[in-house]
């Protein structure tokens, strides 16, 4: 496709225009509105915030609108410790979950690569398949297991490991189990993809030169799979920080993650400006990891272009 | 990479798969339990499925979800495929960085942010919320997954086929339809399937963008689950799992048949 003709330019513009405009309207523009509403104030009205921008009033309307904007919501976020604690809790849960996912996921990906070649597509399929079934269903499945009169307590009591039913549900442990369970494919698949592309002659060379297997793993395999580890870690860490379903259904009520706090402000307290401010602050927090992830994704999918 | 799996490799894969499938298996088995309690096995029974048939709210929600999923998956497939073609075949164009940024960001963006921002957009423009707003929201979310799937297929297949067609004077649009499209068809089908199941599954974004009268199945299930485990919910979930498993098997068979046919065609071309 080296000789661009006028014809090609037109069809090229047509191809990119539709998804571009769609994403511009339904992905990018909403953030501007979120920012605007985070600078508004709550009101008992429909919609529940002021000021409303009146385009018909022209320049005066715009000035009037700007003068009414306030940073009250952000001031609330920084002064009330509930919000700060939620952010910290979210970061903590995401960091620990990501580390556990890495420790659990890496051996699985490594084992998959070592499997006979004919087995690999079915194995990949087996790891992907749970991701295609509903997130909500998979979390619900764990409620069946973890609840007080659930299967885990039943099994443990029969084995005489415990005498009274323990409460597994509504705890941080349950949240971590839910996170690891839900996000495991996101960690395994990128690592598998980089390991699968690795040149096996490197390990043969290491073995020929007398390098023990564990050392070859440490010096060759692990460094070469770093891009997969980074992709997997970001694919897990970023969404987990804002996760709502898992902590809401499996977690306790004593401390909530930021996604839950946003949900409560919006649906229960109907405080749209504060909910928007939480979203903007969360976005600011995740901006660096998101940009980093974008770089990786671009390199992975577009790197093979000449 | 080195073949020959050690026992450690075998065990870690086996444990991993057990961890992934055991909870789902338990859920499915207990949907056939005659007893209402999870720990007491009352024998095999279809009683919860029969009760489901009379639960109008769940049936109505399922119908809404299926329509939203079919509509949004189809729109997302068109938009996502176009985006993938733009990113792999157009080289540099104005605004490319912003475009690829917008394509990949929704993949990791926390759902509460996407949901809230779309809702505020609909409110700002005074759009009536319901079926259509959920469909638009799901299209926006799932098109990015379609793009990634189609794009990974586009970068791996043999470009020389396209170049040969164009060298022989085939116009680009026709080249795309007759050469490129059949080659990426399995990826497009997989993209549609993924978009469909993601839409069927989504709770958070649908909760933000829904309106009166448009309760999707996950919203319905969520409100039931908050009240505790119910065998009827196990039955709903089992049906959804069966649905997804069936779709996945069928689509992988289609992909395999397509591959066989392609191989045969390639063989025929050589003879």
What is the count of structural domains of chain B? 2
- Biggest pleated-sheet summary of chain B: none
- Structural class call of chain B reads mainly alpha
- Which stretches of chain A are poorly predicted, pLDDT < 50 over at least 5 residues? 1-7
| Name of the top-level CATH class of chain A | Mainly Alpha
Q: Structural class per helix/strand content of chain A? A: mainly alpha
**CATH secondary-structure class of the largest domain in chain B:** Mainly Alpha
CATH topology of chain A: MetI-like fold
End-to-end separation of chain A: 12 Å
Portion of residues in beta strands of chain A equals under 5%
The ordered H/E elements of chain A are HEEHHHHHHHHHHHHH
Structural notes for this entry:
The complex is a heterodimer of chains A (306) and B (271). Chain A is mostly helical. Chain A has a single domain, classed as MetI-like (MetI-like fold, Orthogonal Bundle), CATH 1.10.3720. Chain A has helices at residues 6-38, 58-68, 72-79, 81-114, 120-132, 135-146, 151-158, 172-197, 201-208, 213-224, 226-241, 245-250, 258-268, 272-302, and strands at 41-42, 49-50. Chain A has a two-stranded antiparallel sheet. In chain A, strand 1 (41-42) and strand 2 (49-50) form a beta hairpin. In chain A, helix 6 (135-146) packs across helix 8 (172-197). The relative contact order of chain A is 0.12. Residues 1-7 of chain A have low confidence and may be disordered. By secondary structure, chain B is mostly helical. Chain B has two domains: 7-45, no CATH class; 56-270, MetI-like (MetI-like fold, Orthogonal Bundle), CATH 1.10.3720.10. Helices cover 78% and strands 0% of the residues of chain B. Chain B has eleven helices and no strands. The longest helix of chain B is centred in the C-terminal third of the chain and has 40 residues, at 231-270. The interface between A and B is large, with 102 and 104 residues.
